[in-house]
Amino acid sequence: MDRTLRLRDYPYVVVRFACRDCPRIGRYRLAVLAERFGADATMVDVLETIAGGCLRNKEKHPGRRCQAYLPDLVDPRPPDLPAAVSKRLRVISGGKA
User: Fold this and answer.
1) Where are the domains of the chain?
2) Smallest Cα–Cα separation from 28: which of 1, 49, 56, 59?
3) φ, ψ for residue 93 (rounded to 5)?
4) Residues contacting 23, CB < 8 A, separation 6+
């Protein structure tokens, strides 16, 4: 993830968070995060704050840290498209206007 990416530059309306090590996931509306952190906040800072409540960060074992990430930045497919549709969209004719 680009460490300079800011909330104001995030490409989607919904910011999804996930963990690579556990089933923890979450989503926030971009406007809510911008109000809470400010539009100039970096996504790294927001991610660290959101993941701050993870139990892995509170463990004393040095190798087990939270593996939170932003899945929509790893997989550039828009988050609202089903996986089967992501390759090619097609127009279906018919219907009434």
Assistant:
1) 7-76
2) 49
3) -80, 155
4) none
The angle subtended at Cα 19 by Cα 16 and Cα 20, nearest 5°, is 125
Q: Count how many residues are written for the chain.
A: 97
Amino acid at 31: A
Tokens of 18: 């996930």
Give the burial class of 15: count Cβ atoms within 10 A of its Cβ; 0-12 exposed, 13-18 middle, 19 or more buried. Answer: buried
Structural tokens at position 89: 């969209």
Q: Are residues 40 and 9 in contact, defined by beta-carbon separation less than 8 angstroms?
A: no
pLDDT tens-digit series, residues 37-62: 999 999 999 988 888 877 776 666 66
Q: Is 56:66 a contact under the CB 8 Å cutoff? A: yes
Looking at the whole model, is its pTM more than 0.85? Answer: no
Name the DSSP class of 77.
Answer: S
